[in-house]
Amino acid sequence: MGTHYEGTEAEKLALDCYIELFRAAESVGQRINAHLRDHDLTTSQFGVLEALYHLGPMQSGELGQKILKTSGNMTMVIDHLEKQGYVTRQRREDDRRCVDIHLTTPGRALIEAILPAHVAGVVDALSALTTTEQTQLAALCRTLGLAQA
Question: 0.85 exceeded by the pTM?
Answer without folding.
Answer: yes
